[in-house]
Amino acid sequence: MTSKASRWYGVIAGAGISLAFICPGAVNRASGQTEPRAEAANTIARNFLAPDDPEAIFEDARIVHNVTVDGEKGMRVHAKFHVKYGKSVPCMMIAYFYYDDSANTPLKASTHPDYRSYRTTKGQVSAHANFTPAYDPAVYNDLQLFVPYNALNMARGEQYQLKFYLALYDKEGERTFGKSGWYKFHLDVP
Length: 190
Hints:
- The protein is of the alpha+beta class.
- The chain has two domains: 3-49, no CATH class; 55-188, Immunoglobulin-like (Sandwich).
- The chain is built from two helices and eight strands; from the N terminus they run ααββββββββ.
- Strands 3, 4, 6, 7 and 8 form a five-stranded antiparallel beta sheet that branches. A three-stranded antiparallel beta sheet has the order 1-2-5, with no helix packed on it.
- β1 (55-69) and β2 (72-84) form a beta hairpin.
- The longest helix has 20 residues, at 3-22.
- It starts with a helix and ends with a strand.
């Protein structure tokens, strides 16, 4: 969230809370019913103090090489991040891979049908992991995803300077709600 958006949330939330204090006698003691003005103030404060859209805070990510999963050698991404306002929202963490160059050239994925799940619709190497936060905020100290070396479509025995970034995607809202910075790594393709 930008600092400008944060300021607006603060202003609007403060206005909602102020309305609650301005409306004395929020509960009618005789009937036990909430008065309409107080209910409106409570709704305003509730809606702006807890936004509907998840927010991401990235802390770190790293690559572990030469991992074998289901008999296939590859690399594993380990990510550490927090999700605010996302309790029970189905999400996805996606890693996008690039050459470590000034043009941010995407890695072209293998066209082999076995590696279809490791490429974007534009043919770039990516990998994803699904998750659903059970808490608010939810802390992920080590969410992992695996990328087979064969999905990278790179020459065996070569060395590469690469980088990736992570994106968090809200599957219900169909939108990206967080993007990390670059994480760089060296790869010796076995």
